[in-house]
Design goal:
The complex is a heterotrimer of chains A (305), B (381) and C (275).
Chain A (H helix, E strand, L loop, with lengths): L1 H44 L1 E3 L7 E3 L3 H8 L1 H32 L6 H7 L2 H4 L2 H12 L5 H8 L16 H25 L4 H9 L4 H30 L2 H7 L10 H10 L4 H34 L1
Antiparallel strand pairs in A: 1-2
Chain B lengths: L2 E10 L2 E11 L4 E5 L6 H9 L6 E6 L2 E2 L10 E4 L11 H12 L10 H11 L1 H13 L15 H13 L5 E5 L7 H18 L2 E6 L2 H7 L2 E6 L2 E6 L1 H6 L4 H6 L6 E8 L2 E4 L2 E4 L11 E6 L4 E4 L7 E10 L3 E7 L15 E6 L9 E6 L5 E4 L5 E2 L1
Parallel strand pairs in B: 3-8, 3-9, 6-7, 7-8
Antiparallel strand pairs in B: 1-2, 1-4, 4-5, 9-10, 11-12, 11-14, 12-13, 14-20, 15-19, 16-17, 16-19, 17-18, 20-21
Helix pairs in contact in B: 2-5
Chain C lengths: L1 H31 L3 H4 L14 H9 L2 H32 L5 H13 L6 H10 L6 H25 L3 H9 L4 H12 L1 H17 L2 H6 L8 H6 L9 H35 L2
Helix pairs in contact in C: 1-13, 3-13, 4-7, 4-10, 5-7, 7-10, 7-13, 8-9, 10-13
Amino acid sequence: MRNSVKIQTRRKDPARFLPYAFIAPLAAYLLIFHAYPLMQEFILSTTYTSLLDPSLREFVGLDNYRDVLGDPEFHKVLRITAIYTVICVSGGVGLGLLVALLLDFNFRGRGLARALITIPWAAPPVAVALIFIWMYNAQFGIFNDILSGLGISAEPINWLDDPQRALPAVLFATIWQIFPFSSVVILSALQGVQSELREAAIIDGADKLSVFKAVVWPTIRPTVAILALLLTVWSLRRFDVIWVMTQGGPLGETNTLVIDLYRRAFVYLDLGHAAAVGVIGVCIALVVTFIYFWLSARADRAAGK
Amino acid sequence: MALRFQNIKKKFGDLTVIRDISLDVGDDDFLVLLGPSGCGKSTLLRMIAGLEEVTSGEIHLNGRQVEHLPPSDRNMAFVFQSYALYPHMTVRRNITFPLIMREHKWWFHIPLVGYLAKRRIETKPDIRELVSITAETLGLTQVLDKHPRTLSGGQRQRVALGRAMVRQPAAFLMDEPLSNLDAKLRTAMRAEITRLHHRLGGTFVYVTHDQVEAMTMGTKIALLRGGDIQQFGTPREIYERPANTYVARFIGTPPMNLIEAQFQGDSLRIGDRLLPLPETAPRGDDRKVWLGIRPDAISLTTADAADALPVRVTLVEHAGAESLLAFDPGSLRVARDEDGQSDIMATQSGYSGIVAGDRVGLTLDIAQASYFDIDSGLRID
Amino acid sequence: MNRSWAFHFRILAVLAVLGIAAFPVYWMAVTSMTSSEELFAGSPRLLPDPAQIGTYARALVSTPLLTWLGNSLIIALGTTALSLLLAILPAYALSRMSFRGKLLLALGLFVTQMLPEAMLVVPLYDIFSRFALLDSLTGLILANTAFAVPVVTWILKGAIDGIPTEIEEAARIDGCSRVGIVLTIVLPLIAPTLAAVAVIAFFQGWNEYVFAQTFISDESLKVASVGLASFVGELSTPMDTVMAVGLTYTLPAVVFYLLVQRYIVAGMTSGGVKG
């Protein structure tokens, strides 16, 4: 009796361990390249460590956090991160929605238009930064040519070196790059709008805007909400475009959280404080991620109904 | 005339969907547009509603020419196959929505102001009253504050009807509204819509591919095929006097049998049998025709009976109240369907003792028969 | 009449948006094909000058463009291969099998998908320096894969969810092993999604900047993103050459993307965005 039971469990064994065999390499990879660095980051954040000799660490407890959180410059970083994120997300979603609605009709070459609209999204961020730097060039840039051509401003504007204009200029480039993604996502959500529902509203006497409010918006709202969260996380992590265009300057006016972290670590060689900023940033990203997780779970449930 | 089509044509690009349709429907008529899928019946309905433009022709509703008007100006209600209820609105809001839209002004789009204006319309005593009467009529009072997704299929169907009724439209347009319901509920809703028509009056236009719905609900049926009207008339006319072999085969289950026959003076030759023609039947010297005979006009006798057609039974199906019998026509020529079905079919009430393989004789009651031209398939009177 | 007027207006608006979307890349092309004298003259040239095609030949000679692109290609292909290798079986397990810790793995993938790479650059630099992975393309592939593989797994899982289980059950009854099922049945069925995630992983490697900038100091190992960025603030390279390099780096990405964009959109919206 006992023997046969044993044989049975043994025969089952390979199948039972199969899922673990399937996931093991990935799980190990995630542990090595995410969990372990996260832990290291936290450990580093409690030390004074210089990039010049990372092996020399001096434990300082939570001093780094106290320094960073008490630093008015860091408050400015948070403010700029918030402004950058809010404008990126509202601009990206708003423009994306408008363009999606614009493209949501039948015309010859619709497929081509939908493909071409994604060019900004497909272009490498560093290349985007480079061409915008050139277009923003005070003396020879096309933007100033356009402005003087339209008679708006004859004076050459120094876009990226002017503390007043650098952040808007970087934001413009960023939104140009991300709006196609929003458009494409919203366009595919618009496919989910039932044509019968739209027609019912038209028969009920609704004008275009009322049809949008009564039929279209309720259908795409969950997607737009998730999109907004996704763009939020991406704005928090965006490094390349900003770094190449301004390196956080002028006068720290484009110094977002990730730029600040990078400057602390690789310009000021102060790994400890940089790690503390990193931990703070990860916490912010986690909060947004969990809102995202919750929202998409809710959207899935609504879709399943 | 409540609803009139005049030379309606519809093309999608090069594809002609409606060839040339003219119809007149009276004030309290319940018109059923019947036909197989792709016959153009839904397109015709959507043209009445204004959801499709007509390529040419005119549509008149209560003496007003409407084909150039936008849907909202035609004062028609439309019940969709999927019901098309607004999922995020309660039943009450769903039903009130067309009333609010009727009084909608551009400034309703201003946030808050528009919200308040809409709430004001919603709470007007006459509108509340109209909504609650409608809900009561349809048995929806209990669910007025629920959302559509929590309702059963039948309830959703009723909400869709309510949203149509509340506007007191000039015409009710319905596009296969019962096809998403199960068989039992469909029968119940069929009766309910008929009652609704009696109570509300007005013109109903109802699209279906289900001949039972057409026969039971319609006061007029237009049978469409390939963008043409095959026959337009009352259900009884269509059943008893089909205009051609297509109509004859489309209406009735099992369909009418079409057997090749030949007029010979006052008799009709079927195979090697000669049957006397009744007074009312047409005549025609040696003319070959299709004899159209319903399965219930065929009775069984022994294989060697004098005027009976000898056949072999191929299939017996017992449906309870009646039995369905199929026979191999042998040397007789019968009209074939697209699917190659060529048996002669008959029904008998109750359980039949006959089994497949039996040889029997068929007696045809040709007093109830129809005759069609052998080539054109048109009715001969 | 009125209707067609609105229609044409709308088409015009679409064209305007397309123009805005395409202009910067077009401007890159124009700049690369404008002579230096014209570039710094008063009014800009709006069309490329075919006579200046030689800029591209000069860019090949005067900059390490080919080395950069070659390194970027190695990184991108390596990231794609490693990501797919790591992701396929777990995606299948997440979709079809039940095991303890499944929720934890799903949550882990979800969180890492969102984790900003720049915020981990400090500890990764520290770790890489200890394991001699700095100044090595392998190190970059490993780091990029870490940030590509969660999305790839997630999207593949979504695609596998869409395959009816009956197909697999039929194969199991026919005696096919699980791994056999994944290889012979599942993978062919999700081929479009595989193409999409391959491109996503490829882009992660091709576009990546922060790790490459931080981990690589050897000139011969520089990738295109870092090389291109190094032109900023440097005045010795003429602008037409810079833009020629930029366009050579941009065009493969854009063309590649346009070829498979339909699948990418489907993959992103079914797996990536909806979660």
